[in-house]
Amino acid sequence: MKRQLLIIDPQEDFCNPTSGALYVPGAEADMARTATLLSLPCDFDAVHVTLDTHHLLDIAHPLWWKDLGGTHPAPFTIIEDLNQWHATDPAHQARSEAYVEALACNGRYPLCIWPPHCLIGSAGHAVAARLFSVLCDWERRTGKSVNYVRKGENPFTEHYSAVAADVPDPNDPATLPNQVLLATLAQANEVVVCGEAGSHCVANTVRDLVTNGIPAQKLTLLTDAFSPVPGFTHFQDAFLAELQAAGARLTTTKEKKEIV
Description:
Distance between the termini: 15 Å
CATH class of the largest domain: Alpha Beta
Shape: globular
Strand order of the largest sheet: 7-2-1-8-9-10
Strand content: 15-25%
Number of strands: 10
Number of helices: 8
CATH topology of the largest domain: Rossmann fold
Helix content: 25-40%
Structural class: alpha/beta
Radius of gyration: 18 Å
CATH superfamily of the largest domain: Isochorismatase-like
C-alpha cells in the first residue's frame, strides 16, 4: 500500500456550522477540499476514517462533574481543582481524581469539558454528508472498503488520538494502541493526514503514530484540510512546528492534487 489517506473525525458535530455540537470554524471547507482530493482518478491505496464516538455520560462532558452546589460545569471549563469539582456519581470519584492527576502527569492537555458531541446514534456522529458521498464513490470506483475506526467509547478517558486513549485502561483493549491500524499504516510509503481538529485529535493522532513507529518522514499533513478548536490555535501551531522539525511534510490539498 503505497499511499494511504487518514481522515480524522470528519463528523457532523465538528463540521456542520448550523447543527454541529462542537463546530470547528472552517471545518466544512476543510472537508470540501478533502472530498475534492479524494475524487481524483489517481487513487489512494487505502482510506481510513476515524470516528469520535461518545456516550452522553463521559468524563469530558458536563454531566460527569458537579460543584459543591450541585451545578454541572459549563462547556470549556477546565477541571483541575478537585476541591471544587466532584464526580456526580460518588462511585466514580476515586477514578475521576486519578484521571485528572494522570492528565497532569502526561503533560498533553488538562481535562476540558466539551459540549456533548458525537454521541452514539446521533446525527452528529455521522460523517459530513458531502465527504461521505465521495467516500462511497471511492468504494465503488476501487472495490475497496473504507476502514472506519471508532474511538472514545470508554467513558472514563478521553480519546483524542485514533491510536490510543489519553490515559489507557489496561482492562479495555480499545483504549490501548491500535495495532491493526498501526500495522496497516506501516505498509504505506506515504500517509496523508487531514481531519478535525488540528489542535486536538489530528495532533494527538499524528504524535502517537510517530511514537508508535511510523516515521515522521512518511507523513504528509494537509494544512488546508484541518482547523483548530477556537481558543486552541496555539496547540495546532505547536504541533505543526514539532512535526515539521521531525521530518513530516506540510502541504495543501491544492499542491497535493498537482502531484498525484
